[in-house]
C-alpha cells in the first residue's frame, strides 16, 4: 500500500510551537493543539507502553520503536515508558521511514465531508487550513477544498475529540452505536508522597525512580467501580482541549520523570443505560456538558 494520511493538525515541530504558545497564555489553536496533529493525543501523553494482553505483536512493536530512536530499555522493562520528549523523535523518524516506503502525509488538512453516491462512499471533501495546498494522489494534483477521491478504502482514526467530524458522519447516515466509556477527573499530588508510601524504608535510595500506583475500588452494593488510569509519575497535568472555552485534563511525563509531581486519572465507566435517549453521540454530548 501507498496510503495518503490526512491530518487536520500540524506536523510535530509546528504543533509543539502552537502548544507552547497556548501554554504561555496565547490563543488556543482549534486545529493544532494537544489533541490534533501528528501523533494525535499520544504525542503529549506519558508515553506509557503498558499492555494488558499477551499478543505476540507487542514485542515486534517495541522493537520497531527502538529501531526508530526509542529507548532500548522498553524491550525488557515490565512497564515500558518512552516519555513525551523522546516520543516526538520516534514519531518523526517513523513517519520519515513510511514516506520513504511510499506513504504520503498531508498535514493541516481537515476532512469536512464524505462524498456519497448511490449509497457508497466515493471520496471525501477536504479543507486546507492556512495557506492553500496541493495533494498529489491519483495523478494530477488537486487544490485542497475540491473533491478528493481516494484510490481505495477510507479508514478513519479520529479519536473521540473530533466532535465536528462525528456530527458530519452522523448527518451522512453512517451507522453508529453508543460505546461505554470512562469518565472522571485527574488528581495531582507531590511525587514524594507517593514514593514514601510505595518505597517505605527504601525511600530516597538513588537507584529508585519515581514510583507508580494502581488504585481500584471494586463495585459493591449501590456503588460503582472507580479506578486509577494513566498514572503519571514525575509528570505534569495538561489542559487537553480541542475546542476553545472548554477544559479537559490529561497527564504526561518526560523520559526522566523528574517534575516532582505525580498525577493520575480517576474514572468510572458510563454505560448505555445511564444516559437517556437513542442518540449514538450521547456520550459526546455528556462530555461537552461537563
Keywords:
single chain, 290 residues, 4-stranded antiparallel beta sheet, 3-stranded antiparallel beta sheet, 6 helices, 13 strands
Account of the protein in words:
The protein is an alpha+beta fold. 23% of the residues lie in helices and 23% in strands. It contains six helices and 13 strands. It has helices at residues 12-23, 57-67, 84-100, 163-171, 191-199, 282-289, and strands at residues 4-6, 104-106, 109-117, 120-128, 134-135, 142-143, 147-148, 181-190, 216-217, 226-232, 236-239, 249-252, 261-270. The strands form five sheets. Strands 8-13-10-9 form a four-stranded antiparallel β-sheet. Strands 3-4-7 form a three-stranded antiparallel β-sheet. Strand 5 (134-135) and strand 6 form a beta hairpin. It is globular. Residues 131-145 have low confidence and may be disordered.
The number of distinct helices, counting runs of at least 4 residues, comes to: 6
Shape: globular
How would you classify the helix and strand content by structural class?
alpha+beta
Number-wise, the strands total 13
Lateral arrangement of strands in the main beta sheet: 8-13-10-9
Quick one: biggest sheet? 4 strands, antiparallel
- Helical amount: 10-25%
The percentage of residues in β strands lies in 15-25%
Note poorly predicted spans: 131-145
Order of helices and strands: EHHHEEEEEEHEHEEEEEH
Mean pLDDT equals 88
Distance between the termini: 42 Å
Amino acid at each position: 500500500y501507498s496510503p495518503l494520511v490526512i491530518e487536520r493538525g500540524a506536523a510535530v515541530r509546528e504543533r509543539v510551537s502552537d502548544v507552547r504558545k497556548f501554554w504561555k497564555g496565547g490563543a488556543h489553536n482549534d486545529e493544532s493543539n494537544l489533541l490534533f496533529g501528528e501523533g494525535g493525543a499520544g504525542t503529549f501523553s506519558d508515553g506509557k507502553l503498558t499492555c494488558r494482553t499477551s499478543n505476540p505483536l507487542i514485542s515486534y512493536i517495541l522493537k520497531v520503536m527502538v529501531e526508530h530512536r526509542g529507548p532500548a530499555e522498553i524491550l525488557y522493562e515490565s512497564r515500558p515508558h518512552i516519555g513525551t520528549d523522546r516520543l516526538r523523535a520516534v514519531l518523526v523518524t517513523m513517519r520519515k521511514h513510511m514516506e520513504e516506503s511510499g506513504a504520503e502525509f498531508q498535514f493541516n488538512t481537515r476532512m469536512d465531508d464524505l462524498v456519497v453516491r448511490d449509497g457508497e462512499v466515493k471520496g471525501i471533501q477536504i479543507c486546507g487550513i492556512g495557506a492553500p495546498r496541493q495533494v498529489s494522489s491519483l495523478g494530477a494534483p488537486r487544490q485542497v477544498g475540491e473533491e478528493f477521491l481516494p484510490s481505495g478504502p477510507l479508514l478513519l482514526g479520529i479519536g473521540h475529540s473530533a466532535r465536528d467530524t462525528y456530527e458530519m458522519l452522523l448527518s451522512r447516515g453512517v451507522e453508529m452505536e453508543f460505546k461505554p466509556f470512562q469518565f472522571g477527573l485527574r488528581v495531582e499530588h507531590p511525587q514524594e508522597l507517593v514514593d514514601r508510601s510505595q518505597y517505605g524504608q527504601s525511600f530516597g535510595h538513588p537507584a529508585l525512580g519515581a514510583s507508580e500506583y494502581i488504585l481500584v475500588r471494586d463495585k459493591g452494593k449501590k456503588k460503582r467501580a472507580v479506578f486509577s488510569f494513566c498514572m503519571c509519575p514525575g509528570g505534569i497535568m495538561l489542559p487537553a482541549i480541542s475546542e476553545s472555552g472548554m477544559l479537559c485534563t490529561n497527564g504526561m511525563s518526560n523520559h526522566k520523570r523528574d517534575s516532582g509531581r505525580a498525577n493520575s486519572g480517576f474514572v468510572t465507566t458510563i454505560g448505555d443505560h445511564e444516559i437517556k435517549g437513542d442518540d449514538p453521540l450521547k456520550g459526546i454530548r455528556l462530555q461537552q456538558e461537563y
